[in-house]
C-alpha cells in the first residue's frame, strides 16, 4: 500500500504543475476562476491521499515504541 500512496503523491506533484491553465480565464459555477477551482481540487485530493497514507501506510512500530516509553516512566 505504501507504493500506491507514493504513486498518488507523485501524481499530485505532477498535476500541481498546471502551466496550461495560466491564461485560462473561464469561470467555474459562474464565479470561481478555473485555475482556483483546479488548485482547490488538488488540495482536496492531497488531503484524501494524506488520509489514505495515515490510515493504511503509517508505521505501527512508532506507536508501539511510544507506548513502551510511556509505560516505562
TrEMBL record:
Entry-linked InterPro entries: DUF3311 (IPR021741)
Name of the protein in its database record: DUF3311 domain-containing protein
Keyword terms of this UniProt record: Membrane, Transmembrane, Transmembrane helix
Transmembrane segments: 31-53
Protein's UniProt keywords contain Transmembrane: yes
Species assigned in the record: Rubripirellula lacrimiformis
